[in-house]
Amino acid sequence: MDNVNTSSDTLAERIRRAGPLASGERAVAAYLQRHPEEAAVSSAAKLGKATGTSDATVIRTARKLGFAGLGDLKRSLVQHLARRRDPAQVLDDRVQRLHPAHAALQPVIDAGRALLGDVPALVDSTAWTRAVDVLNEAEHVWAYGIGPGAALADQFALSLRRAGKASDAWTATGFRLADDLLRLQPAHAVVVIAPLRLFREIGIVLDHAHRTGAHSVLLTEATDEAKDTRAGTVLPLPDSTEGAANELLAPLALLHALVLQLVTAQHASAVDHYQRLNTLRTEITGTELDLSRLPEP
């Protein structure tokens, strides 16, 4: 092999360093990224069937990615899955990857650039179009996130409201979540932000949306766990646990893109809402907004 990998390399890093892959090898590599839990317990024959290739292609891909064989690859996947469930281990791994003699800024930027670069290969056009259509047709959009994901839920709902889309965020857990769920109607949509793990509340929200007849969109790295939920559409997120990039970076980019896509479909209406927002801000502050330096349209 031309590229040397170490045991600490992430799967995404190994794929990037492997150089050009044949079509069958690309299919295997993509499956490993999307379904690490399934791959970790599958034989070469089963992986070959799942990817439309062969057991020989699976083993060749594993070796091309720098693993000694399929067993080595599966052990690496198991270790990765265990780390994703342990926030302390994730933080420790991120710090360990930083060179003590250098600042953290550049590694974080490099890792973030690489992480976002993995998004297009994970989110296929069919799922993306379905998610956009669901949100565009919904009478009201609810965004749900807990822990760090709560901040993204709040920001996404705010962005939609400013563009003229009725939207609110849920960030509650436990009994308080039940009060929020009572507000869900069949003509609504729910966007669930669960970057690393699907906690019990995530499954309950998705189940309730399914029973209610409301559409749901789930953003998560835990794509294998997502298969066991009632999510209507899943937008996979790239693995963030073994690099220096924050796990909220990719979902933030996807949510921002969803807002822009919706605004594109309702351009005039969205601009009008922002103009009304400026008017209200002027009334609140008592002074005109300073737009003198803006160029003429």
Automatic annotation (TrEMBL):
InterPro entries reported in the protein's UniProt record: Homeodomain-like_sf (IPR009057), HTH_RpiR (IPR000281), RpiR-like (IPR047640), SIS_dom (IPR001347), SIS_dom_sf (IPR046348), WH-like_DNA-bd_sf (IPR036388)
GO molecular function terms listed in the Swiss-Prot or TrEMBL record: carbohydrate derivative binding; DNA binding; DNA-binding transcription factor activity
SUPFAM superfamilies the UniProt entry points to: Homeodomain-like (SSF46689), SIS domain (SSF53697)
Leader sequence segment: none
GO biological process assignments: carbohydrate derivative metabolic process
One Pfam family linked to the record: HTH_6
Domain spans labelled HTH rpiR-type: 8-84
Residues of the SIS domain: 131-268
Protein name stated in the entry: Transcriptional regulator
Species this chain originates from: Streptomyces cacaoi
